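Slack export, channel: ligand-projects

TW: morning all. Re-posting the request from yesterday since it got buried. We need the structure predicted with the small molecule present, not the apo form. The ligand is pyridoxal-5'-phosphate; the SMILES is in the block with the sequence. No rush, but it would help planning for next week.
GE: picking it up
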Amino acid sequence: MSPASAALNPAIWPSSAARLASGELQIASLSVIDLADQYATPLYVYDADEIYARALQMKAAFDQQPLNCDVHYASKAFLSKAVAKIINQAGLHLDVASGGELTIALAAKFPAANIAFHGNNKSDAEIELAISSGVGHIVLDSLHEIKRVAAIAEKYKVQQAVMLRATLGIDAHTHEFISTAHEDQKFGLSAADGSLEKAVELLVQHDALQLIGLHSHIGSQILAIDGFAAAAAKLVAQTAELNQKFGLKMSTVGLGGGFGIAYVDSDKPVAIEAIAKLLNDTVVAQSKKVGLDVAKITVEPGRFIVGPPGITLYTVGTVKPVTVTAGVTRAYISVDGGMSDNIRTALYDANYTAVLANRSSTAPLVLSRIVGKHCESGDIVVRDCQLPADITPGDLIAVAATGAYCRSMASQYNGTPRPAVVGITAGQAGIWIRRETYEDLLALDQG
Ligand SMILES: Cc1ncc(COP(=O)(O)O)c(C=O)c1O
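GE: finished. pasting the full token output, ligand included:
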């Protein structure tokens, strides 16, 4: 196989990914051919030990810095009971953004006190589930929510710790659909238009709520880190200002997640240790300047922890060469999944790296597009890649770094049962989420 297509960039692939002499790909010492034979494709495969290692790495990066930090794994990236257990074992806290995510976490016996509850439109039922379960804090996202959360806290006779999600007008330099702290979008309370201050004014009237701090999340898959520092500095200044104005003692600074990972060779994420230092230095310097006592910061990485340890395996069904312009052809390689198991390419032009996974090839590389089996021409998994010209039906394709926001965003489009999720721990594979069946589809349909 030509080196360019066979190479496994360790910044993109699980660190346990390797090629046998035959060219066959292994993850955590297990052959992808065996995994595909045993569990069928499409298949999400996680190196569970790497999830644990990355959770520990993230925690250590912040533990080495002066400020106390709770690292919350943002479970929207991918959650199953097994993942919740790994995260708890690594000593991280957890973020959930729906009643469903909370239910999975509680089913895994994740300590409720270490869970934060997010969401821009939480239902009363979700708020009730969060408060009755004893979640550590709730991040309030709107003026409307304050009264609702206070009423439910009163009903349960608790004083609920809350944070306020602030939008601070920061540009995260990432795709619009994953930028969240500029003004013209749905999340949070704007500092610029006075909503944030109004929220504090309302909130302090409710004894059932204890405001512990402000929170900001500027976006996801951020590779240019200046936005993190700008948001942290603004958040600290805003916290000090509101403390002074309302006689409060907010001392938790919620810095959100969004730490980018490498999907393709040209992605160059900044080391998490450097980001931890930047955030600490910024908060320490700014809090000194504005006179804020910071008891704790929080961060919420999702993608960083589960993205690189996960891959997706597909089986090739058809290959169609198309002449794009004179002398340029593109091979459309159709696989047995698609936008139902990975919507990110269609949703926000995400880039991915793919390899031929079951064998080696000495064929020349050709411009290729990996597409799915769905009834949309936008059903693209990998828009442009170079793959051997002899790829043929029955070959296995592995797509790297699909551990975050793929299974968690998967759908049953075209009545497609969602793939199984397999986790590998200490060289042993096990099913974390079983493959859906046609019976599962019919079980929900009441006729
Ligand atoms: C509030 C909040 N926190 C954390 C995250 C996690 O982001 P990432 O997976 O990019 O770290 C998200 C994702 O969009 C989010 O909305």
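GE: first-pass observations. The pocket of pyridoxal-5'-phosphate is lined by residues 74, 76-77, 95, 118, 217, 220-221, 256-259, 300-304, 404 (CB under 6 Å). The chain has two domains: 3-40+309-444, 49-305.
TW: perfect, thank you
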